[in-house]
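Morning - trans-cyclohexane-1,4-dicarboxylic acid inputs below, output right after.
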Amino acid sequence: MKSYNVAILGVTGAVGQTMMKVLEERDFPVNSIKFLASERSAGKEIEFKGERFKVEAVSEEAFEGVDIALFSAGGDRSKKWAPVAVSKGTVVIDNSSAFRMEPDVPLVVPEVNPEDVKWHRGIIANPNCSTIQMVVALHPIHKVKRIKRIVVATYQAVSGAGATAISDLENETKAFFEGRYYTPQALPHHIAFNVIPRIDSFDESGYTKEELKMINETRKIMHDPDIKVSPTCVRVPVFVGHSEVVTIETGLPITVQEAKELLTKAPGVIVEDDPANNVYPVPIEVAGKDDVFVGRIRKDAGFENGLSMWIVGDNLRKGAATNAIQIAELLVKYNLI
Ligand code: L14
């Protein structure tokens, strides 16, 4: 079997670490691997498949001979290094928001629009975490019943905002019980025992960039510019796992039974829905898993053809690393590398 030279940029971050784990777990055909990061992290030791590696500082030469590079080092690093990697013949799968809305960059969720990888020109964008888990669950319904409108509120884990946000939640919690106050370093407010209705920065419309990503990326991935999305993105004191309250309005009538059947058959979706026995997904139990979990499926009381549900996914896995590795697997499957 053919195997590939792989690089990970941003390997020391929360998503980079998960990318490494998922490559191992899924036994991606790796011929060689290199771990790249900023000067600051260069020299750190990393273990992959029982072997020790040293993190290298990213440079132009580092991409020589690399078939696939997985990027998760933030938008600025992606803007700087993706064109360099592409000029060396590397295919970049980029987890930042830098290229997602570029018309010549496919934005791919393998359960939804796998064929879009075929028109890549060197860069394939990995969508935003909240968007990925939502479209995995909604696309199977959209295909049959045409979704006209989506109203969504997210409950997003701190790990989406990186290592410093994770330590904010830890340190604030400890400080709280010791009667001290810990000043948040990454998030705009105290997050322990709190919720914050802001993820990423605000724009002049009053929406945050995270919310605008949910609007625009959903349309691009589902190939439907007419879908209306009303998002509110909220940070909650959870370490891993984003949850979403989602209400949809469909063009064709849909029953709860039909929705459950569509979702039970859907790739990458697990229906956990037995309210009488307190069965519905919760982030602590979804963390560490690769599927998207759906529960609380019910007829919506406020829309004519309305359906409401609760969608939970591991933001570091399906929301980032797993989706990126699945894109790499598509490149192999379609013989594109
Ligand atoms: O656009 O702070 O992929 O939780 C997703 C996670 C932006 C930040 C993206 C967070 C990011 C977000």
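Note: Residues 46 and 210 are 32 Å apart (CA to CA).

O.
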